[in-house]
Design brief:
Elements: H1 4-12
């Protein structure tokens, strides 16, 4: 079971919207 806040946290770090 994964907590909902954890899911949202991972979504915030979606690969693709990060500029190196």
């Amino acid at each position: 079971i994964i907590p909902y806040h954890m899911i949202r946290h991972l979504i915030q770090y979606r690969p693709g919207r990060v500029k190196e």
